[in-house]
């Protein structure tokens, strides 16, 4: 699941994104990897809550489209609640999240 919250600060708007994976993801480590961090595989570890869900929150510039995937114990996973999917050069697909500010 991906939750979006738009925060205006002066002339800038950021999108606070919370990425959540269900408790049935059995893993020792889960990382969020994407175009927002140059596909670095260790920058953004998800934390497991007491209820077992995996979660991370990031603030990213609004008005952009980002590609991402989860890396769970070395296995790549997509998010079934992504805004879309795009083919990647490795023969699979990346998840897409849009941070476009909704019209009022």
Would you mind describing this structure in some detail?
Helices cover 0% and strands 54% of the residues. It has strands at residues 2-9, 12-21, 30-34, 44-45, 47-48, 54-61, 65-72, 75-77, 84-87, 93-98. The mean pLDDT is 94. Strands 3, 4, 7, 8, 9 and 10 form a 6-stranded antiparallel sheet that branches. The protein has a 4-stranded antiparallel sheet with strand order 1-2-6-5, with no helix packed on it. It has one domain: Immunoglobulins (Immunoglobulin-like). It has no helices and 10 strands. It has 104 residues and is mainly beta. The radius of gyration is 14 Å and the shape is globular.
Query: What's the number of extended β-strand segments?
Result: 10
CATH fourth-tier homologous superfamily: Immunoglobulins
- The share of residues in extended strands comes to over 45%
Taking pLDDT < 50 over at least 5 consecutive residues as the criterion, the unreliable ranges are none
Number of spatially distinct domains: 1
Give a brief description:
With about 100 residues, this protein is mainly beta. The chain is built from no helices and ten strands.
What are the main properties of this structure?
globular; mainly beta; 6-stranded antiparallel sheet; 54% strand; Immunoglobulin-like; 104 residues
Which helices and strands occur, and which strands form pairs?
Layout: E1 2-9, E2 12-21, E3 30-34, E4 44-45, E5 47-48, E6 54-61, E7 65-72, E8 75-77, E9 84-87, E10 93-98
Antiparallel strand pairs: 1-2, 2-6, 3-4, 3-7, 5-6, 7-8, 7-10, 9-10
């Amino acid at each position: 699941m991906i939750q979006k919250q738009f925060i205006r600060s002066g002339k800038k708007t950021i999108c606070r994104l919370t990425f959540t994976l269900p408790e049935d993801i059995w893993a020792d480590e889960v990382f969020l990897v994407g175009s927002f961090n140059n596909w670095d595989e260790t920058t953004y570890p998800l934390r497991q809550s007491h209820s077992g869900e995996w979660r991370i929150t990031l603030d990213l510039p609004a008005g952009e489209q980002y590609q991402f995937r989860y890396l769970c114990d070395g296995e790549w996973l997509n998010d079934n609640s992504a805004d879309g999917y795009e083919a990647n050069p490795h023969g699979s697909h990346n998840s897409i999240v849009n941070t476009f500010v909704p019209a009022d």
